[in-house]
């Protein structure tokens, strides 16, 4: 039960409200700075019009049509926190054959169970810049979720995007760039969903810091104030890619966007996600962030998770029985409920879960074979078998190891110091070199930092089945190894270091979810900031004083400032191993001893100082009274986009990563695949209408609690007592007849379906945005003579100088990783640029505009596509107008 008790008790402690009743009117919004506004957008667009979902919707409609009112409202909400085996357990409609769905964390493997793989974190996976590996991880994870009986995988996380380097949850996602997040998120969705598991893209949107993320009765969560263009070009971008990949569900964020809370933000859910992006799946609230009953339904929320009000465990809910009541009394239109239920059932059909889906065989909160079925109902919970200990690991450790290995990012390697010879005597420093002596899983939700850091903390973790730690793997290679198992450098070293001695210093930096505080860090790295934890920077400095050759290995959730030691003469090598998951040891040893060359690249920039980034990004918002305002005043300029604009040289740029060998990028060609013949994409097709079920208020009897049913204490049900149902029905019927409405509908409310915004038209937006316009081929050769290696090829676009829009100097648009190339060997890789990659979001036109497209004069403007091995190592460029590529040119930044 330790897992989320902090969250629960914190919320309980803050509670002054009647916990069982929370379906009341919309909370008043706090004022946000001028210029930021979450405009009303109603009604929620129906799902089911997109071709690839039509069949599933047709089946879903048949099933939903057979459901009673209480069955429909049951499947749209969870049974309550700790009220079942999974972190989220939706209600069922067994009478018609629809099961309870199991929704399970975490983003790096099946959470809260056993016999699973603890894969490398998202940030590590992003650092591979390897599409095949990203996909392979997803396939393996999808198999494990399915094997455990989990219908819904609560990942991938592509928000936070990584705007704030100190943000607590950046490590769950893939790196501080929308394209890296977008490609990795979409491949994860594909791999997971191909296994018949519904993926959940999260957190929609703006959860860029942990502190003050949640609404509580005294204070609203912070508002991420994001302008329209920035929203489209950065934060919405990976969600668009995820929807384009057909993602089945989405999770809203805790925070507000432009003043309106994530779970009831009609602009974000109805307009952006369901209309513009054409999302066909269902939208769930983040845990305990569901604030209002009717308002959230109208704003487009489809599933309440875990079902409770903000104050959980009292059987209260904004929906379930309240939603039943709200439909009966006419506050929530019947077609909205039908759409919610149909979206959920359609996703279940879409991924084949109606056929042979395994039953849940684990319990998130009980580790014994038998235990409480509903721990939230203690002491009244029935007891039964809850764990079958199904081993779902198969050979997934090899995928996990490959990713951990290929993510290792060599930042510095003076005098080609690595790889190590197996003869050099090694002295190893730092507790991060070995597993937590109390066990890798000693702290629930990994909310402590006592050994090698394999993952951050919070809901995005999984239990380690075992932990391959670095010191064990190093000792397998070498006899002469001594571990100084402390984070303080020894006062006396005996014997004194010789010139041949090599010191490897392990340091780390941790972060996680705000429900836990670890060593003074409240989720975000607000205490240790950019410094290594446990005085790690000191440890490195001390080692550098005593040893001539020092290798620094960093396990980290994000960037550190390495200035305190990076230029010391004995610091020969620095490796960022990110968060490797269970396979921390062998993967590192393979790199240290040269079995493979490192091939990871930085998924963020490492600046020289905190102030190299603007305050809006480097600082956390902390107002303790009223709603904290997190205003994205830096606009499009985060990470390398900002540094390039300000001409600030980071210590290591986004995309940087060395190898033991060298690569040449030759023979680049740019091919025109589709002419960009107009600035605007081809107009979208009109949205086809979809069949609708009856919109009549159903008879009250569909909501009556069945006679003789024994309820589980505190479990959330969707029935009403006969008298409540009859009363609500009478109100609903009379208001329908008189045309009066009993609910104060929000400003701008309308019940008439809209035709669809011009930027929409398919999953992810107008299908024309995803057409490839150019392809760039480049041949990469391993020009070294000794080591094999994999090269990362990154393509950045530079918009036409006379585009009329302010654009970042360069922006990542695609990437590819070569296979293992032997010395002298080459491979040709292809990168592609789609219309969207060549467009900016025009806030006036409310559409994507390609400023370099052919104008009325038949002339196009020049895009430059830069190709290379890091955002500051781009020595080849190709022009979109002349279709010429040149190499040996100076990098644009
Ligand atoms: C997190 C989500 C997670 C959910 C369920 C929340 O606190 O923000 O990412 O999926 O809990 O555990």
Automatic annotation (TrEMBL):
Alphabetized GO MF terms: beta-glucosidase activity
Catalytic activity, as annotated: Hydrolysis of terminal, non-reducing beta-D-glucosyl residues with release of beta-D-glucose
Alphabetized SUPFAM superfamilies for the sequence: (Trans)glycosidases, Beta-D-glucan exohydrolase, C-terminal domain
Pfam families reported for this sequence: Fn3-like, Glyco_hydro_3, Glyco_hydro_3_C
Signal peptide stretch: 1-23
Annotated SMART domains: Fn3_like
Keyword Amino-acid biosynthesis: no
Pathway of action: Glycan metabolism; cellulose degradation
This enzyme's EC code(s): 3.2.1.21
Domain Fibronectin type III-like: from-to ranges: 791-871
One record GO biological process: cellulose catabolic process
Key words, A-Z: Carbohydrate metabolism, Cellulose degradation, Glycoprotein, Glycosidase, Hydrolase, Polysaccharide degradation, Signal
PANTHER family noted in UniProt: BETA-GLUCOSIDASE, BETA-GLUCOSIDASE F-RELATED
Family of this protein: Belongs to the glycosyl hydrolase 3 family.
Protein name: beta-glucosidase
